[in-house]
Amino acid sequence: MRLSITHTKNNTYFYMIKSFRSNGKNTTRIIECLGNLKEVEKRANGEDPVSWAKQYVEQKTKEENENKGTYYEKLVEGEELDSEQKIYNIGHIFIRKIFEELELNKLCKDIKKKYKIEYELSDILEDLICTRIMYPSSKLSSYEDSKKFLRQPKYEIYDVYRALDIIAKEKENIEKWCYEKSANLIKTRNTKVLYYDCTNYFFEVEMEDNDDLENNKKGLRKYGASKENRPLPIVEMGLFIDGTGFPLAFNIHPGNTNEQTTLRPLEKQIMKDFQLSKFLICTDAGLGSFNNRIFNTKGDRIYIVTQSLKQLSAEYQADALSPMGWHLLGSNKSVNINEINKYDSKNKNIYYKEILIKRTKTDPKTKGKITLNERMIVTFSPKYAIYQKNIRDAQITRAKEIINNHPEQYSKLSQNNAKRFIQKENITNDGECAEKYKLYYKESLEKYESQFDGLYALCVPEKINGNIEEILQISKGRWEIEESFRIMKSEFKARPVYLHLEERIKAHFTICYISLLIYRILEKEKLKEKYTTEDIISTLKGMLSNKIDGLGFKQLYKKTEISTALNNNYDFDLDQKFISLKSFKKFLKF
C-alpha cells in the first residue's frame, strides 16, 4: 500500500491506496481516506502531516504483511454494481484437499500424457467431483456450477464431454489408484470383510438401447426390475465396499442383467487389481446363488449370505420353525421358543439355532454332483417380530378396506403390498367363468406369514469357525452398502442419468464412485463419523466468501462445529471474518 495526495482547488486530501490486477489490467483501490489537510494535521498532533501520513501507511502495510491488518472497503451508496463475480464457495477446498491427498492430480497428468490431450483433465475431474457432492446435476449444469468456485474453469463444456470418454476408458486404473493411495488416508481399512450388493439407476427416456447383434453386444439402458418401480430403462450397478465402509470397485451392467451373474467378474477384478485373496464376502439372498457360493469356498475365501426361510425345502423349513433347539445369544442356555411371548416389546433378547444344510447340484460340464455343506444360523428377535407384524397389519387393513369399500382399486395394487392378501374369483351365479369378480380376504396367508415373524437366517460354509456373535455382527455391517447407495441416489443425485452414450454413462458412475470415496474419507477420517451426510454437505455448500478486490476474502457464513472440525484437519483456518489474498494463496491455487 502507498500514500496518495490529491490537490483540489479548495483543499488537499490524503488517501491510502493499493495497486492490484483485475481482469488482466492494473488498477488501484482506495483502502482508507485519511482526511483533508486539516484533519490529517489534527491526527498528526504537531508532526509534519505528510511525514505522519507516510508512517501511518507504512505501519498499515506492515500489519497487512503480518496478516494482522485492519482492512477497509469503501462503500458508496448509489455506486453501480460491476459484472464481475464476487461471491464464491470455499467449502469445496476440503474436497479438493482430499483429491490432492489421493494424488489424483498426478494420475490425471499421467493419463493426459498417455492420450496426448490438451485440456486439463485434473481440473475437469476435480470440478465434476466437487459439483457432484455439492451441486449435483447434469454435466452442463456442473460446468456452470463450477464457476462458483475460486478457480474458474479454463476449459469449455465440450472438453468435459471429451474427458468423460477418457475417464470411462481408465475406470479400472482409477479404482486401483484410489485403493492404493487411500491407504495413506484411511487409518484402519478392513479388507478381510467385503460387502457386495446391486442397485439400479433410471433414465428419463422412453426407449431402451438396441442390441448390437453384429458384435454380439447388448445395449446398456434396458427395461428391468426397477428398485423404484419406475417404468423406465435402467442400468444396474454392482458395488463392493470393505468392512469399514469405503468403496472398492463397481461395475455397470445392462438393466435386464441377472444380478447373480455380476458378482464373480467384479470379484475376480479386485482379486487381481488389489492383490486380495483372503476375505469373507457378505451378500444378500438375491446374490447368493449356488454358483456364487461354490466360487467363494475356494482358496481362502468364505461367505455369509442371507437366506429366505420361505424358499427352503420343507424339511429344512420345518427345522427352522421348530420350537426346539433354540439358545439365548451370548449364553448356552436352551430355550423353547413357544414359551416366549413372540411380540413382547420389553424382550430385547435374541435367540438362535443352528442347522446343517446340504445342497447338491449337477455340474453342467462334468455332469458330476457338486455338494455344498453349510451352517444355517436362524435367529429370532421379538423386536423384529413386532416390526414385521406392524407392517403386515397395515397391509391387511388396507386390503380389507379395498375389499369392503373400494374393490375398483384392486387392479392398481402392487403384488408385494396389500394385493397379496386379496383373493379374486371370477364367477357367475351358475358357477361359470365371467368377467365379473368378487374379492375375498386370504386369512390363510396371514397365518402362514406370521410363522416367520422375528426370524432371520444366514448361511455360511461349514468350514467357518467363527462364533455366532461374530457372524451376526459381520452381517449387520451390510447397512453400510445400503447407505452408500442412498447417498449416491439422494445426496449425489446419481439418477436420473442425462447421458446416453455408453462410455459417458460409465464415466458418470466413475465420478460418483470417486465422489463417494472422497466423501467417506471426509466423513469417517476427517470428521470421525460425528455428523450426518445432510449436515456435512449443507455446511460445505454454505461456506460462502465475498471477494474484495486487491484485499482478500470476507466470509459470509456462520462458524459451526463442522466448519471448525474441517479446518482442524489442515494448517489453515477459513473461519475468520477476513482473509488476505496473500494468506489465501498459501493453501489454495486459483
What keywords describe this structure?
590 residues; 19 helices; elongated; 4-stranded antiparallel β-sheet; alpha+beta
Please outline the helices and strands.
Blueprint: E1 2-7, E2 12-22, E3 25-36, H1 37-44, H2 49-65, E4 87-89, H3 92-101, H4 104-115, H5 121-134, H6 139-145, H7 157-169, H8 171-182, E5 193-202, E6 234-242, E7 247-254, H9 263-273, E8 280-283, H10 290-295, E9 302-307, H11 314-321, E10 326-328, E11 334-335, E12 351-362, E13 369-380, H12 382-405, E14 422-426, E15 437-441, H13 443-450, E16 455-461, H14 468-476, H15 479-491, H16 502-526, H17 533-542, E17 544-548, E18 552-555, H18 561-567, E19 578-580, H19 581-584
Parallel strand pairs: 5-8, 8-9
Antiparallel strand pairs: 1-2, 2-3, 4-17, 5-6, 6-7, 9-16, 10-11, 10-12, 12-13, 13-16, 14-15, 17-18, 18-19
